[in-house]
Design brief:
- There is one protein chain.
- By secondary structure, this protein is α+β, with helices and mostly antiparallel strands.
- The chain folds into two domains: about 190 residues, Sandwich (Jelly Rolls); about 50 residues, no CATH class.
- The chain is about 15% helix and about 30% strand.
- The strands form four sheets. A six-stranded antiparallel sheet has the order 7-6-10-3-12-13, with no helix packed on it.
- The longest helix has 13 residues.
- It is globular and about 65 Å long.
Length: about 270
């Protein structure tokens, strides 16, 4: 009973929630821990990080709106974080087209191609234990929602994150080292602290969350990145209500064919 009740908000929502996708960069680390760590996007000291991403890493989200970003703790982390709620006074994110990672310079603006758009500004509240541990890799932390979505039309992408730091101590995130395959060809990172000039750094493993386009994992109906009972019960609700989102085979009719098509996709997972 409680399982079905939890789906009511989804059924009342628009279809947009069913079209939520995500991509993990670098692509090979969605289900694998990073080879290193980095004191950057969730560190206690003020940082600017510029992630330069080759278009080959982003083919699954062309034409979709990027709406949020997430980071995760490294495999070496032993305790969930943070212990108490805290806020970054300012947490800003900028998106733009960019140069190839191989052509990156140690100059934030030189790596940007075309307009540089601020998609998030203002404080960021981090709730207790929202970054978990105990998995390999660890689950991604909370989605950092954008104020304004940004449509990815293809090409190389720049994700620039600036924050003012916090008082909850040093905290690194999962990352890929600079000597790993793909660094400077598929992805790169430069960063700057409170002084000096930008320098090279490990590439933080990031998840970009998008909306629009076709689902990359059709049986993941609620778009949470996991195929589980929530998706199964959601499909049953849609099917019983005659909602066209239950037309799983897209033939214009909701019937037993859709039910068995969903069961087959659900059993296979993604």
């Amino acid at each position: 009973m409680s399982k079905k009740a939890s789906l009511i908000p989804l059924l009342l929502a628009t279809g947009a929630a069913l079209a939520q996708n995500s991509v993990v960069i670098p692509n090979g680390y969605e289900n694998n821990p990073g080879t290193s760590a980095f004191l950057g996007p969730i560190h206690s000291q003020s940082r600017t990080n510029q992630f330069i991403i080759h278009e080959s890493q982003l083919t699954s989200i062309v034409g979709q709106d990027i709406t949020a970003i997430a980071f995760r703790l490294p495999a070496s982390a032993t305790d969930a974080w943070p212990l108490v709620e805290f806020s970054f006074f300012a947490y800003e994110i900028y998106l733009s087209d960019g140069v190839n990672p191989a052509d990156r310079q140690f100059n934030f603006f030189a790596n940007v191609v075309g307009p540089r758009t601020i998609v998030r500004s203002g404080p960021l509240v981090v709730t207790p234990f929202s970054f978990s541990v105990g998995a390999a890799p660890n689950d991604f932390g909370p989605a950092i929602e954008f104020n304004d979505p940004w449509t990815y039309a293809g090409g190389n992408l720049i994700v620039e994150v600036f924050h003012t730091g916090h008082e909850q101590g040093f905290r690194n995130n999962d990352a890929v080292g600079t000597s790993e395959p793909g660094y400077l060809t598929e992805f790169a990172n430069i960063w700057q602290g409170t002084g000096a000039n930008p320098v090279q750094g490990n590439f933080s493993i990031i998840k970009l969350i998008t909306e629009g386009g076709a689902l990359t994992c059709p049986p993941d109906l609620n778009g949470d990145g996991v195929v589980d009972a929530d998706d199964f019960f959601l499909f049953l609700q849609l099917f019983a209500a005659g909602d066209m989102r239950a037309d799983f085979n897209n033939d214009g009719v909701i019937d037993a064919d859709d039910f068995f098509a969903f069961l087959n996709a659900f059993a296979q997972g993604c």
